[in-house]
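Researcher: Go.
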Amino acid sequence: MMKITSLVLSLGLGSALVLAGCSSTDQKVSDGVNKMLDTTEELSKAIDSGDQAKVKEVGPQLEDQWSSFEDDVKKDNKDLYEEIEKYLDPTIAGSEAATLDKEALGTLNEHLTDALKELDEKTK
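Model: Structure:
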């Protein structure tokens, strides 16, 4: 009887640790996505207003934000990882360009925002 109780308790504890790990990964991704969505919104406003200094300040922040949780996305949502990567790098490059191409950068930022919103929905 004692062995069965120990086994049940061990399985329960192991399950709780696995579930806690999953939720902390989901929370990390969710927090990262929300941070990036705030940044893409700020970038959109800077693009629309033609504030190139602000664009150059805000755009590169996306890379640091993404790097904090991208491995978790790559592991669990490969399709969305690739979609985000497809638009992230050109968005950052466009934000660092010598001249601001409002139309192109705005479109890239919109696609990136859409992919991030899709990831946000999937991780809820």
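Model: Residues 2-49 form the longest helix (48 residues).
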